[in-house]
Amino acid sequence: MTIGLAMIVSGMMANPLATVDDSTSTQPQTVPVEQTATSTASLSEKKKKDETAKIINVNAGIEAQTRAYFADIPIMAEIARCESHFRQYAKDGSTFRGVVNNKDVGIMQVNEYYHLARAQKLGIDLYSVEGNLQYALRLFNEQGSQPWVSSSPCWGKTAAAKGDPLAYTVKVAASVAPVVQE
Asked: Buried b / exposed e across 90-114, counting CB within 10 Å, b at 16+?
């Protein structure tokens, strides 16, 4: 008698510890139904865990990338945390969109209605990590944190905001200032 390897029989998992007499048997060993049900359930649970890990990994590394990109402007990393929780992509792999306004896209929740045409004219892809960060930096250099003022209750009390002279750009001045079209 020798120890048999795991065998798949009629789509069911065989008992990996079953013994088979290789000298006389040419038929595979079968396994009782209760053992196959447990094995199938375990495979199903493992598949769900694998799928969940893939979803989590869609945005892996984006927080570190965002913090590095805005190392000199830490308030922008805090804004990204509050706006998107450092998500560029949704669970299905599409671009992450705002809950309140689905025209807000990506890590920095740049609004397509106001900024997509300009971004495209500048050759910036709002739907990529790099493009979303790049356009947000341009926006910040022009208007400070005003474009993200709606999320300021989240990021406004952080140490980064307290040390940033542009963190509390006056709303009136920013709303009166014309949007520069390039």
From this structure: eeeeebbbeeeeeebbbbbbbbbee
Rounded to an integer, the average pLDDT of 77-95 is 94
- Helix, strand, coil distribution of the chain in percent, nearest 5: 50, 10, 45
The predicted model scores a pTM of 0.60
pLDDT tens digits for range 102-121: 999 999 999 999 999 999 99
Handedness of CA 181, 131, 71, 147 (dihedral sign): positive
Residue 67: what pLDDT? 94
* CA 172 from centroid of its chain's CA atoms: 34
Number of C-beta neighbours around residue 76 at 10 A: 26
Whole-number Å distance between alpha carbons of 165 and 155? 14
- Cα–Cα dist 85/175, whole Å: 26
The encoded tokens of residue 7 equal 């065998």
Backbone φ and ψ for 20, nearest 5 degrees, come out as -130, 135
Give me the count of residues in the chain.
Answer: 182
Strand-pairing partners, residue 13, are 8
